[in-house]
Design goal:
Helices cover about 45% and strands about 15% of the residues. The protein is α/β, with parallel strands linked by helices and about 325 residues long. The chain has an eight-stranded parallel sheet. Strands 7-11-10 form a three-stranded antiparallel sheet, with helices on one face. The longest helix has 24 residues. The structure holds ligand TUI.
Length: about 325
């Protein structure tokens, strides 16, 4: 399954694990990298030295490339940008903002830079300022999302940029991988599927919620405040919806949801947690190892693409 992404990242399979705050630690990242994908450590809102420890631990657990995801709304984003250079990170992905101010420094230090984008305009801007590839994330994804679906976003980005495009949002199976390739993507990023992996260290309650989820188990809060976030339905989500109907502002929302990612991932507290997950959670029905997840996605995608080529290409 060689693509421009496997060659760029020096990995076996074009499958990248999402950088999920409070979730994507050294255990998950090294398991995904050891399985032939690209693992990512998520900086989230953690301070520099906490993230440095995770990076150093991951280096002991894999000799394969792995990346650092920097969430640009973090108060420590500048520190983490420097950390990527200090720790000689192979790949940086960014989310929730424009990483322009860091790109020259990363490129001078031979770091591969792959921003997450939610529109064609953002993708073109990232290409212009020197990104090596972009991750186009549709609003099926969990967490902080944009306006467009993966189905609409990916082919439009692919037509407008020359750099490789990785599809994210709604992909948790070989069928999804094959579909993303048909849309012109050269790789995929998956978050929700890896929540239900053996090596993912989130609370068992969170994993159970993902495994039991159906197609309609997620919903989006914060659209009215301009900060839409997709999560599994829960008491906190219901409170957010009520607040939204009373025309709450962003600050009130922040107060209500402060600490809620930790409450979900670490404590598994159903009442106060933000259990971020994508719409595809409905097909994630079992907890598997990262190796099993990646091998299944790759072999299913290859089979589907071969079968469809036979069906539509007139090959008996
Ligand atoms: O970043 C994500 N997903 C996230 S970050 C996160 S932590 C958080 N917690 C509470 C509130 C907000 C965030 C949870 N999930 N995905 C990548 C992504 N990036 N999706 C959309 C974007 C994006 C948005 C705006 C990328 C660029 C952008 O640019 C703005 C600009 O200035 O051009």
């Amino acid at each position: 399954m060689d693509t421009t992404i496997t060659k760029l990242l020096k990995i076996k399979y074009p499958i990248i694990q999402g950088g999920m705050a409070w979730v994507s630690d050294e255990h998950l990242a090294s398991a995904v990298s050891n399985a032939g994908g690209l693992g990512l450590i998520a900086g989230g809102s953690a301070p520099k030295e906490v993230v440095r420890e995770k990076i150093r631990a991951a280096k002991k657990m894999t000799n394969k490339p792995f990346g650092l995801n920097i969430m640009l709304l973090s108060p420590f984003a500048n520190d983490l940008a420097d950390l990527a250079v200090e720790e000689k990170i192979d790949v940086v992905t960014t989310g929730a903002g424009n990483p322009q101010r860091f790109i020259d420094m990363w490129k001078q230090n031979n770091i591969i830079v792959i921003p997450v984008v939610a529109s064609v305009g953002q993708a073109k801007k990232m290409e212009k300022i020197g990104a090596d590839a972009v991750i186009g994330e549709g609003n099926e994804a969990g967490g902080h999302i944009g306006e467009l679906t993966t189905m609409a976003l990916i082919p439009q980005i692919v037509r407008e940029v020359f750099i490789p495009v990785i599809a994210a949002g709604g992909i948790a199976s070989g069928e999804g991988v094959a579909a993303a390739f048909m849309l012109g993507a050269q790789g995929v990023q998956c978050g929700t599927r890896f929540l239900a992996s053996k090596e993912c260290n989130i609370h068992e309650k969170y994993k159970e919620m993902v495994v039991k989820a159906s197609d309609i188990s997620t919903t989006v809060t914060g659209r009215s405040t301009g900060h839409p976030v997709r999560c599994l339905k829960s008491p906190l989500v219901r409170q957010c919806k009520v607040m939204e109907n009373q025309v709450a502002n962003f600050e009130e929302f922040e107060k209500l949801t402060a600490g809620s990612l930790k409450n979900a991932a670490v404590d598994g507290d159903f009442k106060t947690g933000s259990f971020m997950a994508g719409q595809i959670a409905g097909i994630v029905n079992e907890i598997s190892t990262c190796d099993e997840i990646i091998k299944d996605m790759v072999s299913t995608a290859q089979k589907i693409m071969k079968d469809k080529a036979c069906q539509f290409g007139g090959i008996a």
